[in-house]
């Protein structure tokens, strides 16, 4: 006979059994390596197994490492693409939300770069940025502008990467905004219209506050993604760019760890990056407390 | 009023059209370059429609490097991870959503908070773990972690499962149905569309991944498609054989493009839901 307590005991066992794989995966492939990373950052680990504790020495070196500062600056600079992408995506979503003809086709076209492999589009953009024959300069030529050799110039390499990042990501952001806009009730706008509000006022007092949570989500996820930027520079500027002008933090970590076998030093950078992302995410949780995940 | 609205919509339509040209233009240029002969590539002003179309590069590319093994490796990794990983993830999502066991919510929160640990922060120790096992330059480091499941997918499916009434599951429980059967014949069929959308997104993520393959795979015949085309780029750019490079890149894009066009509705919906719910 099935009794209630009997049932519950069984349920307990099966519940644990069913969540065991992801839980083990988390412990083995994330939590253990993370603790090891933190420990490694305090050692002179060289990849051959010898690890001696050297305290904060790696972090002190980071403090004065010019290349690290450059990589950090480059990574932050390239986040300028985030506000640009947000404004463009919101404008696109507002346009599409009016139900113009071809909405589905536009959604698909704008989303195609998002699903495209980053490696392939990096190769394509690298060719498009070619100083003599690239698509970008040929386009500028139509307006009588002689474009630079984008990837070889330390002043243009970062803007070039930003343009590419906006192109790659705007469709995703647009989609999120479109979904948010469609959930805003029509009655708000009807009421605003009755009160004599113009289009801009309606946007500023209704639309913008209503999509705020989405804006916030996009900012946070973009900062997290942007701080891990790597593939583009690895393919487009394999040496870190002119005067290291396009190297990112992850690029530098990768170079130090798997190029120079300075595992301890690279771990220290990884820890700095991890703390940065942790803080950004924490802010998101705090500010989004009200609509955070409802764990019953 | 109505005609003003029509004019505004026409202007918006034109602006969206111009934007669409900018979005798709570079990709079309890539396709066009892959079909040109070498002189046309360097023609000024640019030639958009190659004359004649040269499909030769699409033949040449298979002999130029390990493209086929690249595709094979990418397929092996992506299929084994998504098939097994979807099973483990959906099973866990079912347990988190519909079963009662102690510390359930604490474990779930622990998993969620682990999402804020970025891959670069764990990649170095992971590399040593796998190198001790002798797995470097094999596909295993790229497959094994994924088999244990995907936390984003668990989160998404758990949310989705909250719309499945508990009564159905309670009734089946009383009937003495086993817990695995509750999952496989009652829950899973109900969440199939969500599972499919998440699986496709995950598949795309693995297919397009670059950082972890570049860390683990050295020998050309072990590399994934993304690494193979990156190497094509490095090798053939020196010889300025851009049609060949572009042909390889098109081949890397095509499978995902086809999957996207077929499942575009589900993918777009899934992205929209996961984003808005934050």
Based on Cα principal axes, name the global outline of chain B. Answer: globular
Q: How many helix segments of chain A?
A: 14
Q: How would you classify the helix and strand content of chain B by structural class?
A: mainly alpha
What is the rounded distance between the termini of chain A?
31 Å
Task: Summarize the biggest pleated sheet of chain B.
Answer: none
Question: Helical content of chain A, roughly?
Answer: over 70%
Descriptive key words:
heterodimer; A: 296 residues; mainly alpha; 14 helices; disordered C terminus; B: 278 residues; globular
Description:
Chain A: The chain crosses the membrane at residues 12-35, 71-96, 108-128, 160-181, 202-224, 263-283. Chain A: This is Sugar ABC transporter permease. Chain A: It is a multi-pass membrane protein. The complex is a heterodimer of chains A (296) and B (278). With 296 residues, chain A is an all-alpha fold. Chain A is built from 14 helices and no strands. Chain A has helices at 4-40, 57-64, 66-77, 81-96, 103-115, 118-128, 135-141, 157-182, 186-194, 199-210, 212-226, 231-236, 249-259, 263-287. Chain A is flat. In chain A, 42% of the residues are buried. Chain B is mainly α and 278 residues long. Chain B has 13 helices and no strands. The longest helix of chain B has 36 residues, at 242-277. Chain B is globular and about 75 Å long. The two termini of chain B are 38 Å apart. The chains are: A mainly alpha (296), B mainly alpha (278). The interface between A and B is large, with 105 and 104 residues.
Short description:
The complex is a heterodimer of chains A (about 300) and B (about 280). Chain A has helices at about 5-40, 55-65, 65-75, 80-95, 105-115, 120-130, 135-140, 155-180, 185-195, 200-210, 210-225, 230-235, 250-260, 265-285.
